[in-house]
Amino acid sequence: MRNIKIIEVRSEIGAGTRGASLGIDAIKIAALDFMSNLFVNFPSEVIENENRLLYEPVASPYAKRIQGILTMYERVSTATCETVKSGLFPIVLAGDHSTAGATIAGLKMARPKRRLGVVWIDAHADLHSPYTTPSGNMHGMPLSISMGDDNAENQVHTPDANTLDLWKKLQNIGKICPKVLPEDIVYIALRDYEKEEDALLKKHNIKIITVAELRKKGVESVVRQTFLHLANCDDIYVSFDVDSLDNSISRGTGTPVSNGLKEREAEDLVASFMQHHKICCFEIAEVNPTLDKENLMAEIAFNILQRSVNLLLLN
Fold first, then answer.
1. Exposed (0-12), middle (13-18) or buried (19+): which is 40, by Cβ within 10 Å?
2. Sign of dihedral through CA atoms 134, 137, 140, 143?
3. CA-to-CA distance for 236 and 281, rounded, in angstroms?
4. Tag placement on the chain: N or C end, fewer CB within 10 Å?
5. Domain limits for position 286
6. Among 217, 138, 222, 140, residue whose Cα is nearest residue 186
7. 3-state secondary structure of 271
């Protein structure tokens, strides 16, 4: 049985569309609607956010609100690290996906000598840097932060010195860089990324399991394949971005993409991962109820969360 702690990160300064900071409360409302006491049963920590920056001018166009992101990284990494060190299993509920790099940092800070694997269930690669970003939105950058790879060989922009200084600080949070090796990342449901990210995926030969492959082989086979690929890792973190789901059901998220996972596929996939002893953290990100009808996205996210928690309590 795992002792669980919920970390609530209501931050949306890394996203281009407003509303992701409301996702956690939408999930909590779904829990009430389903008459679940999940949020009563476990301790939770609410991380102070920097969302006030949304009302201020953007200083770094190629890494928007990076100063606030750095502050969030310090807070989230500390909370995650302390949770793991106290023997609890962190479940992170986040607004936008930018702070996932801070979750990774916290896991690595807690166990610096252990090798960390990452299962990234997401439509997007999130491998941009200030040199390559098409939008400047930092929810497209957490894995390049964690890998410590700027992808400078595919440079599109020339960021200013202050942006680059803050970027290096992000990569070196916890005084560990890189935190994750490219061979220790597995993407599932990836299907929407830019040519600069594609160059990085090919350069490092990063493992990608497509939706079509998952349907052909089945969830259990894909999970086995993932653990085989990450066999050298001591701990494995699962990050679930709700836009991994097909856009027919994932309307309540900022960047929906077609040809994604069905609700049951996502639920079975995450549940299969949660049964493994190497899983050290689970994160859900990018629920945005302002874009949704009848809180559907949050309800799906809650179902995945509830089933995951039930399995963690059994293991």
1. exposed
2. positive
3. 7
4. N
5. 4-314
6. 222
7. helix
Q: How many residues does the chain have?
A: 315
The answer to whether 165 and 130 are in contact (CB under 8 A) is no
- CA neighbor of 7 nearest in space, from 48, 51, 46, 49: 46
What is the Cα–Cα distance from 191 to 310, expressed in whole angstroms? Answer: 30
Q: What is the CA radius of gyration of the chain?
A: 18
The structure's pTM equals 0.98
Is the C-alpha dihedral spanning 244, 248, 251, 252 positive or negative?
Answer: negative
Q: Which 8-state DSSP code applies to residue 280?
A: E
The CATH number for 125's domain is 3.40.800.10
What is the model's pLDDT at position 315?
81
pLDDT at position 58, please? 96
Do 77 and 109 form a contact (C-beta atoms < 8 A)?
yes
d(CA 230, CA 280): 13
Closest CA to 138 of 174, 97, 172: 97
Output b/e per residue, 91-126; b: 16+ Cβ within 10 A. Answer: bbbbbbbbbbbbbbbbbbbbeeeeebbbbbbbbbbb
CA distances from 183 to 52, 61, 199, 226, 272 (A): 37, 31, 15, 11, 22
Low-confidence spans in the chain with pLDDT less than 70? none
State how many domains the chain has: 1
22 three-class SS = helix
- Distance from C-alpha of 188 to C-alpha of 214, rounded to nearest angstrom: 8
Q: How high is the pLDDT of residue 24?
A: 98
